[in-house]
Write a structure and sequence with these properties.
Blueprint: H1 5-37, H2 47-72, H3 82-109, H4 117-140, H5 147-176, H6 191-217, H7 222-239, H8 249-254, H9 257-267, H10 269-274, H11 279-292, H12 294-297, H13 302-306, H14 326-371
């Protein structure tokens, strides 16, 4: 960890800037996908693209600062903070290549689907950036002694984890959603493969992120705020752009309540004294509950991936054309799909939590053995 206080503050501000860029990137990116699904004006110059590329610009500035810090302070290369600095440089470089590439792809091939080479490159860069900002803030916070900067780091750590969670979900969506049929190229996968990708990997991601938040922050409120932030960002970018999709909005927001319940269960001593549960069991319960919410968190996009297998309706047979058409299908099948996905998600979350704790235990044993 950097011992120079001024250097630590500067590095912290770089990661705060990167966290801001990450949340702008994923917000603009998700809004852009929603616009495509609603058949909004199909041009490169849209408000969603403006927010997306504003985020890319902020992250490029962050990457330039990272390069400057590494060149001026060569001792950082032996420091744990070197990894997140490199991640920001790599992620921003990919985004910088993908931005103009996406523009030229539009010019050459017209409207593209979700899974296109430039979109995949862009989302990969976004994901790497979000890892960089989250890991960077976690690692630099212990070195910050300035109270104001420390508070800023704690606040922006929430945004960094929200961006990381949403980027992980989007990275799965790019392979799982059947919306990759462009004007000239159809990159949609086999429908069964798409459904399996969504059903398996979304619960795993939710479980891993929830456990990571708990293990990293070790404080009441973080999981509630980050989980609620994921719901609110999805609401702003995926639901509010259409009046039709807002029909489920009150119930959608209520679905964030389990994160608060988990937080209380983890940290309220008055409750813990009544229920004798060890910390690992609490983590397993937290991972299981978080994973079970994957279908609701995925509204309104996720039902598209499960349309042919979990919902008792064939999307093509009912003439699906825009995102608005998914709402009646979603509502009519909720009585069956919701319990099924809760059970599937909970089982996968339980399995993921067990594997996580087993891996952590084995890693700790190896470290202890090597020290001896």
């Amino acid at each position: 960890m950097p011992t120079n206080r001024n250097l630590s503050r500067l590095i912290a501000l770089v990661f705060i800037l990167a966290g801001t860029g990450s949340i702008l990137q994923i917000g603009g990116g998700n809004w852009d996908v929603t616009s495509h699904l609603l058949f909004k004006p199909e041009t490169f110059f849209t408000p969603s693209h403006a927010i997306l590329y504003a985020g890319i610009f902020v992250l490029i500035v962050s990457a330039i600062l990272c390069i400057t810090l590494i060149l001026r302070h060569k001792d950082l290369r032996q420091n744990s903070i070197y990894l997140p600095l490199r991640l920001l440089i790599l992620g921003s470089s990919l985004s910088l290549i993908a931005g103009p590439g996406d523009y030229f792809w539009h010019q050459l091939f017209g409207v593209d689907g979700f899974l296109s080479p430039t979109h995949l490159l862009l989302i990969t860069g976004m994901l790497i950036n979000s890892f960089g900002s989250a890991i960077g803030l976690v690692r630099i916070m212990p070195a910050i002694q300035n109270l104001f900067v420390s508070k800023l780091c704690r606040i922006f750590l929430i945004f960094a984890f929200i961006a990381l969670w949403l980027n992980l979900i989007s990275f799965i969506y790019i392979f799982a959603l059947p919306i990759s049929n462009g004007e000239l190229f159809n990159f949609n996968l086999n429908p069964l493969i798409e459904s399996l990708i969504a059903i398996i990997f979304l619960p795993i991601v939710n479980s891993l992120v929830a456990i990571s938040i708990i293990k990293t922050t070790k404080k009441f409120g973080y999981l509630s705020l980050i989980g609620t932030g994921v719901f609110l960002m999805t609401l702003l970018t995926n639901i509010l752009p259409s009046v039709v999709t807002t029909a489920f909005m009150p119930y959608y927001l209520l679905s964030a309540l389990p994160f608060f319940i988990v937080d209380v269960f983890l940290y309220k001593k008055s409750l813990s004294s009544r229920v004798a549960v060890d910390q690992n069991t609490k983590l397993i319960i937290a991972g299981t509950i978080s994973a079970s919410l994957f279908y609701i968190i995925g509204y309104p996009w996720l039902p598209l991936a499960l349309g042919n297998y979990l919902t008792p309706i064939d999307l093509e047979a009912v003439g699906f054309t825009t995102l608005d058409d998914i709402v009646p299908l979603f509502m009519n099948s909720l009585y069956f799909v919701l319990p099924a996905t809760i059970i599937i998600g909970a089982l996968l979350g339980l399995f993921t939590a067990f594997i996580f704790l087993k891996f952590e235990k084995n890693l700790a044993r190896k470290v202890h053995t090597s020290v001896k």
